Amino acid sequence: MANGHTHGAPDGAEMLRAHAYGLLATLLAGPPDAGTLGRVGAITGDEGALGQALAALGAAARSADPAAVEREYHDLFIGVGRGELLPYGSFYLTGFLNERPLAILRGDMAALGIDRAEGRAEPEDHIASLCEMMAGLIAGAFGDPAEPAAQRQFFERHMARWASRFFQDLEKAEAAVFYRAVGTVGREFMAVEAEAFRMIG
After folding, report:
1. The domain containing residue 132 runs over which residues?
2. The domain spanning residue 73 has which CATH number?
3. Which residues neighbour 166 within 8 Å (Cβ) at sequence distance 6 or greater?
4. What SS3 state is found at 88?
5. Are 148 and 137 in contact (CB under 8 A)?
6. pTM above 0.70?
7. What are phi and psi of 88, to 5 degrees?
8. Confidence of residue 121 (pLDDT cuts 50, 70, 90)
């Protein structure tokens, strides 16, 4: 997504959230190379459910072979004709690609000053793009960091109704090995985010 000027600096907790969304965006936008796997392998967690999921993702990255992960990504998301999963909001919400949820997202992106990423062929309601947008809203990539109410609105309009289901499907996908751990992190993080947004309501 396009970057704007950052006016305010989010606090440490907000940057941790932005980094979590950024991590998911990176791993879901394309297969991680050896350098990315090395960085993910340095992740440690804590005793909470999300912390344990992050620790398991770090362990999965340390034992992963980049070529095998690339094949896994292809089988999950690209395939011959199509991959095992279709990581798009329109598909999860309507059963079809490029439907009304995508049009609503594009309208909200325009209102927030978020441009479509150059050179990206996928529709903007791809889970990686949505995670990237959430990271940018938190960190101030599109101007000032978004207020919690604006973050909540974006999350509830474009992720809350389907992202957890996608991550659960990723955990259970036949082709998933490394990406099973990514699915668990995503599912746990979506639960944390949903609860936090309920509390600010």
Report:
1. 12-29+65-200
2. 1.10.3480.10
3. 85, 87, 92, 127, 186
4. strand
5. no
6. yes
7. -125, 140
8. confident
